[in-house]
Specification:
Blueprint (H helix, E strand, L loop, with lengths): L6 H9 L5 H12 L7 E5 L9 H4 L4 E6 L4 H15 L3 E6 L6 H7 L4 E5 L12 H14 L5 E12 L12 E4 L6 E2 L7 E2 L4 H6 L2 E7 L11 E10 L2 E10 L9
Parallel strand pairs: 1-2, 1-4, 2-3, 4-5
Antiparallel strand pairs: 5-9, 5-11, 6-10, 7-8, 10-11
The structure holds S-adenosylmethionine.
S-adenosylmethionine binds next to strand 2.
Length: 254
């Protein structure tokens, strides 16, 4: 079962385009600050690119998408194909399980930057245990050493106050990825966050226990992380984190 894609996801994303406009605009602002060195991009969990600005993709010579959902490829082409044609960007859309053999997938695109597009936060629903999820995220990080990559993912999610008074003025928040976290989401039990992020957590008007998507240590420490609110439905909010990691220069051989 696909917990984060499929027709229900497409129907929701299409219906809530207006409500998600603010979040998409924050994602666009984040991407506008990302200037990849590579001219090729692989997007994992691309879906139809509902929240992805075509304009950023137009800067690449080749864009490849990989999604396990069979509806993703035709819908991605429908949404972004003509813009990419105008910019002369080659587009290739694959239907596949990107995490089944990530090594082979990466080897097929040796010079491409990789973007995990709102998929890493869902891994905890695809594994039998939290330990397996953490191991999978560790495996992904290891495979990406020496690679230019980025991710937009759920960090936490949960209920928000019904009044939603603060929503209109929600801002994107920026921090540096720190070492393991030491405090908890305000008013919540057991969801650890970095102390510097408490103001953002308060802005979200969180209620009750929030779900930890286990992604808070995905980025190497020192990475600039953008924090973005995503009001998935009227009373349920996702706290997205977005970051871009430049590849380390490869060691020169003597
Ligand atoms: C929240 S949606 C992504 C939204 C998308 N980035 C957008 O802007 O529309 C998560 C996507 O990850 C895909 N996905 C989940 N598991 C996957 C896997 N193992 N390999 C590839 N894609 C996967 C789902 O099918 C779904 O389309």
């Amino acid at each position: 079962m696909n917990h984060s894609g499929g027709l229900l996801w497409h129907a929701r994303a299409w219906r809530r385009q207006g409500a998600w406009r603010g979040t998409c605009s924050h994602i666009r602002q984040w991407l506008e600050q990302v200037h990849p060195n590579s001219k090729q991009l692989v997007i994992i969990g691309a879906s139809a690119g509902w929240m992805m600005p075509s304009r950023w993709l137009q800067g690449f010579e080749r864009v490849s998408t990989v999604d396990i959902d069979r509806w993703a490829a035709p819908l991605f082409r429908m949404r972004h194909g003509s813009a990419l044609k105008r910019s002369g960007t080659q587009l290739r859309c694959e239907t596949d399980d990107a995490f089944g053999d990530l090594q082979t997938l990466l080897a097929a695109h040796p010079d491409a930057a990789v973007l995990f597009d709102n998929v890493l936060g869902q891994l905890r629903f695809m594994h039998a245990s939290l330990d397996e999820t953490v191991s999978c995220l560790d495996m992904i990080k290891q495979r990406l050493v020496d690679r230019e990559w980025g991710s937009l993912h759920d960090a936490y999610s949960g209920a928000v106050r019904r009044s939603g008074r603060g929503r209109k003025k929600l801002l994107m928040f920026q921090s540096l990825q720190a070492e393991p976290a030491v405090t908890t989401l305000p008013g919540q039990d057991g969801v650890p966050i970095e102390p510097g992020l408490a103001p953002f957590a308060i802005q979200l008007e969180a209620e009750g226990a929030w779900l930890d998507h286990l992604t808070s240590q995905v980025f190497p420490s020192g990475t600039t992380v953008h924090h973005i609110a995503w009001h998935y439905s009227r009373h349920y909010c996702h706290w997205l984190q977005a970051g871009w990691v430049s590849s380390k220069p490869r060691a020169c051989r003597p």
